[in-house]
Amino acid sequence: xxxxxxxxxxxxxxxxxxxxxxxxxxxxxxxxxxxxxxxxxxxxxxxxxxxxxxxxxxxxxxxxxxxxxxxxxxxxxxxxxxxxxxxxxxxxxxxxxxxxxxxxxxxxxxxxxxxxxxxxxxxxxxxxxxxxxxxxxxxxxxxxxxxxxxxxxxxxxxxxxxxxxxxxxxxxxxxxxxxxxxxxxxxxxxxxxx
Length: 194
Prior knowledge:
Elements: H1 47-108, H2 114-134, E1 139-140, E2 152-159, E3 168-173, E4 175-176, E5 186-192
Parallel strand pairs: 2-5
Antiparallel strand pairs: 1-4, 3-5
Helix pairs in contact: 1-2
């Protein structure tokens, strides 16, 4: 049988242990109306910081919307540019359809009269040149004009005592267009004197 429990309240505490206070403890202080600052008191935002945070959030939102609008504008512009290119290609091709039709007519009549074929091909060429001029690319095949490196491509130099030096003596391949709107320069030979 175990021994009965003993009352140890009168035993001295072990050595080195803190002793409980003796006597009456002071009454706790009444609660104050202001709460004491908690551990987050130093990092809690103040009213000014709240305003800055709200303004920053609004600016970030506007920035993101502006980026989205810019991206949408870029995509819309790319689509419109592709559509305009396709329309312009179609207009150009439609302008050349009569030229193709006339070439086919000339080929169909090739067996009847060879002389008429030459005249027909010449007429079709003139029609094609006219289409290029309407598109803004005028033909350049002039001889005797001063050599211009922006309009002419030299493919040879010839001795010609009758021509002025540094002028176009012969056009081997005509050029089309002017300055920035040039399809190709004219291939020419240039006159020189000894």
